[in-house]
Amino acid sequence: GAVVSQHPSWVICKSGTSVKIECRSLDFQATTMFWYRQFPKQSLMLMATSNEGSKATYEQGVEKDKFLINHASLTLSTLTVTSAHPEDSSFYICSAGTGLYEQYFGPGTRLTVT
Amino acid sequence: TQLLEQSPQFLSIQEGENLTVYCNSSSVFSSLQWYRQEPGEGPVLLVTVVTGGEVKKLKRLTFQFGDARKDSSLHITAAQPGDTGLYLCAGANSGYALNFGKGTSLLVTP
Questions:
Q1: Which pLDDT does position B95 carry in this prediction?
Q2: What share of chain A is helix, strand, coil (3-state, %, to 5)?
């Protein structure tokens, strides 16, 4: 149980284009999903908290107009990187909460912007 | 943001050795989780501790939550190459948002 999937697992796009990443909870409903960013050999940095049916809450320093988050259902949240630039290249990971404390993470999406 | 300090940052040991990873904060957390992450994959939850002084064992891994709920430790007995990975501690308070430590990169060589 508590499986979270992400799609795509990796994507290469050209500078200036937009990329959408999907995060799905496969066997449970998640009222809250989280999006993280991770640079090589570093820890996870929380970007935003996504609640079903409401606007996402972004962490300080994260541009909400650049990183669009939609949480349309209890099993799906999407992150769209708009007008991507090379500095947006990173490993993006989502997670979903099942209870009071635990979060279960997706396998991550490797984004490379050329 | 409540900071979590992990130490050591890097650890390279030989198979069969024991090791301890520490996770410290000046803040109190309602719970603390330990995750293990392999390159190119998402973190996998190992354990959640919620009670001060709590000790949990997962095979060769022993997790302890400090009495004051500000710190935690992960002890691995007789490490194996399969234990290699990035170990992350994360603390949580109100709601679900996790505060992650910087991680401990463990390499176990045969």
A1: 61
A2: 5, 55, 45
Q: Is the pLDDT of residue B1 over 70?
A: no
- Which of B76, B77, B67 has its CA nearest to residue B29? B67
**DSSP per-residue letters across A37-51:** EE-TTS-EEEEEEEE
Sign of CA pseudo-dihedral B31, A105, A110, A62: negative
Angle, CA of A110, A41 and A103, to the nearest 5°: 65
Q: In B, which residues are within 8 Å of A28 by CB distance?
A: none
Kindly determine whether residue A6 and residue B41, on different chains, have CB atoms separated by under 8 Å: no
What is the SS3 assignment for B40? Answer: coil
Distances (CA, A) of B54 to A80, A84, A103, B60, B77: 41, 45, 20, 17, 18
- The beta-carbon neighbor of B97 closest among A4, A49, A104 is A49
Is the Cα dihedral B16, A44, B33, B42 positive or negative? Answer: negative
**In DSSP terms, which residues pair with B24 in a beta bridge?**
B5, B71
| Percent of chain A residues past pLDDT 90, beyond the cut | 70
Looking at residue A24, its pLDDT comes to: 95
Q: What's the pLDDT tens digit per position in B74-87?
A: 999 999 999 999 99
